[in-house]
Structure formats: C-alpha cells, structure tokens
Amino acid sequence: MKEIRPKNSIEARIKLPGSKSLIHRTLIAAGLAGGESRLSGFLECEDTLYTVKGLGELGITTRVAEEAVAVCGTGGTFPLRRGILQIFLGNSGTSFRLLLSAAALTRGHYILTGEARMLERPVGELVRALKNLGADASCIGMEGVPPVFVKARGIRGGKVVMDGGTSSQYISSLLLAAPYMDKGLEIEVKGELVSKGYVDLTTDVMARFGVDVVRDGYDYFQVPPSQGYGPRRLTIEGDVSSASYFWAAAAVTGGKVTTENICPFGTRQGDIGFLRILAEMGCKIEKNRHHVVVTGGRLSGIEIDMRTMPDLVPTLAAIALFAHGKTTIRNVPHLRFKESDRLKSITKELSRLGAHVVELPDGLIVHGDHKLKGAIINPHNDHRIAMSLAIVGLRLPGVKIEAETCVKKSFPHFWEVWDSL
C-alpha cells in the first residue's frame, strides 16, 4: 500500500521515459523491416515487454539493454512454425491488438490470450476485418473477445469497412501489417474515429520506416502493395500520457513542474492537447522545443469532449476535484473497455474520498470545491487510475493506494519519481 504525502507548491524538473505508444508501434515496424533496427529511449515496462515477447514468439529476435532495444527484422518473411504456440499478453490491449495482424502475416498456428480482464476486452471488429482480408482468425471463447486463434498463412489484403467508434487500435493494427499484404490495404472508416492521435502516431512511425499512407483525414486509408519497411535507428521521445500526472501535480498545488524529453511542437502524440485543457482551466503553459513547463493557477471547471484523449480522463477527473465549479467529460464510452471500466472505477474511488461524481453513459461530471476526506482506495489493477489518485493525495491527507505496483504496466519507476517531487 502506498500512502501519498501532501505537498505544497511543488517545484520540480522531471525527465520522462520513452512513449509507450510509440514503442509498441516502432517495435512491430522494426520487426517486419528487412534488417536490424535500434531504438533508443526504450521504456522497459510490462506492456512493452509483452510486445517484445510476442514478437519473439513470431520468430523476431530482440535484444533489450540500457534503455535501448535492437530488433532483427525478418523483412516480412517467416519460416513455418510447427504445432500451436500460445502468445500470452497479460492485460496489454495495445500489444494484443497490434500483434494480432502481425501474427496473421506469419506461417504457423497461434493462440493469442491474456489475463482475465483481457478476455473481456473487445477485439471482434479487428478479427472480422482480418477475415475479410483473407486471414484465418477466430475468437475461440466468447464471440468478439480473446482468446483468438490465428492459422497464419499471410494476409491477402483488399478493402474493409471499419467502425470508428470502438478502438483506433484496430485500424493501427491493420495499417502496420499492410505493407506485407499481397494486395495492399484500403480502410473506409464509418462514423467518427476515436483516439485519432494514435492513428497519426501509427502513420508517422510507418513513414519513418519508409512506408507512406495515402489518406483522406480519418475517413479513408490506403497502403499500396509491394512496399516494405527499412531498418532504422530512432530515438523515442518522452511519453506525454505519463507527463500528464506531473503537469497535474503543478496544477493542483499551484506549483511549477518542468517535464523534459517532451517535444510539444513536433510530437504526434494526441495527448499533447491536454496542455490546452490545463490552460483553459487556469494554468500557465510554457512550450519549448524539448520541454514543457506547467505552472498552477486558480482552477475552474470546464466542459470537454475527451474522445481524442481518453487515457487522460482519470488525470482530468483528479484535477477537477480542486477546480471551482463542475467539470463535464463527454464522449468516452470506450473507457469501459480499458484495464478496468474506467468510468465506473473513477466514480467509485473518488466517491470514496467524499467527492461528488456523477457517472454518465459516455463520461463523468465531477463537482469541484467539495469537502474531501482521506481513504484507502483501490485502483482496480489499472495503472492510470493509480497514478491519477496520487494527484489527489498531494492536496488531501490520508490517501492510501492499494496494489500500487500496478503502475509497472506503463511506468515502473513512477513512485520513485513521484516521491522526488
């Protein structure tokens, strides 16, 4: 159990580890490239190591050492693997979804599975798309959720229509595998795409490895056939999602936090938009080429559509407790299918602290200026819930977090860095 110590007017300088979202995507592109790639700024956490492990099961060799990883790509050519191999991916939804299409490119039989919570997380839309593109993939338990059995023999390719409302990772998964589909790939997106920034990350990584995606905004994507990734040496920029907790620390304490290894002008990480939200709530923001400075101010509640930044809803909810007025968060129903049902988890745990929180079908209403009390709270084995609850403890004595080691999923040294504030 982790007890959070209240602190006043924090002043700190923090160097952020590499972006987890970028690492997943670069690992897969490097694994499919023809030759050895080297990625610096590697974040060694549970999720990224599941992707490394999964690539190894597919026959792609990696070497991790000193915040760097070398990946020996196969050029999209894979030997036949005998028997049925199981790829266990814990509760890393990103690893599962992005690796699923990559697995279908190989030659062999694989069962992709994970922890109990993973077996509740939707993947049916991606499995259906792979089938329509000529892959042999099927859910072997309940329909639409893992485990997924892949009889890999390559992917024919072609055109598919995808629903944009559930997960952008389905589209990212197909795009990453597209250069090695026999007929290339066309994706038509129906409805508004959630988490758009993550698709931008995917297409940016593909471009860095030598493959350009033809697109019409977020409605249509095309990758012509007969392309392939080339090996690269890349440095992974800092994780903006992880930076948000430290920006929030400045916001709620009226302090000043500088986050290094964050590139606000060049990043494709959609969560950088959180700086605009903090400014709207009353913080002062200074952007520099390789770092960001956030200084807290008098906070006011806002009404905000968080569809493009769903992972930062727990962070925003924690800040909203200390803002004047109410904060309304909308258009994030897909948060119910993360490591926990985040809308339910946030409501339950903030209410345990005495907060007035209303759970909506697609979001939350958090009332600020409410009298709070310390409590032992449960992060529901969800790393982002645990880290966001730490923000509350900076202002509220008696906040204790159970099972705090769940942060290892994305930020193994979070508590060490947090205590250094």
List the helices and strands and how they pair.
Elements: E1 2-3, E2 11-15, H1 20-32, E3 36-40, H2 46-57, E4 61-65, E5 68-72, E6 80-88, H3 93-104, E7 107-113, H4 124-132, E8 137-139, E9 148-153, E10 158-163, H5 169-177, E11 185-190, H6 196-208, E12 214-216, E13 220-223, E14 233-235, H7 240-253, E15 256-260, H8 274-281, E16 284-287, E17 291-295, E18 303-305, H9 313-320, E19 326-330, H10 342-352, E20 356-360, E21 363-367, E22 376-377, H11 383-393, E23 400-401, H12 414-419
Parallel strand pairs: 2-15, 3-14, 6-7, 10-11, 18-19, 22-23
Antiparallel strand pairs: 1-23, 3-5, 4-5, 7-9, 8-9, 11-13, 12-13, 15-17, 16-17, 19-21, 20-21
Structure characterization notes:
- The chain has 421 residues and is of the alpha/beta class.
- It folds into two domains: 2-17 and 239-419, UDP-n-acetylglucosamine1-carboxyvinyl-transferase, Chain, CATH 3.65.10; 79-221, Enolpyruvate transferase domain (UDP-n-acetylglucosamine1-carboxyvinyl-transferase, Chain), CATH 3.65.10.
- 30% of the residues lie in helices and 25% in strands.
- The protein is built from twelve helices and 23 strands.
- It has helices at 20-32, 46-57, 93-104, 124-132, 169-177, 196-208, 240-253, 274-281, 313-320, 342-352, 383-393, 414-419, and strands spanning 2-3, 11-15, 36-40, 61-65, 68-72, 80-88, 107-113, 137-139, 148-153, 158-163, 185-190, 214-216, 220-223, 233-235, 256-260, 284-287, 291-295, 303-305, 326-330, 356-360, 363-367, 376-377, 400-401.
- Strands 2-15-17-16 form a four-stranded mixed beta sheet, covered by helices on one side. A four-stranded mixed beta sheet has the order 4-5-3-14, covered by helices on one side. Strands 6-7-9-8 form a four-stranded mixed beta sheet.
- The longest helix is centred in the middle third of the chain and has 14 residues, at 240-253.
- The radius of gyration is 21 Å and the shape is globular.
- The two termini are 19 Å apart.
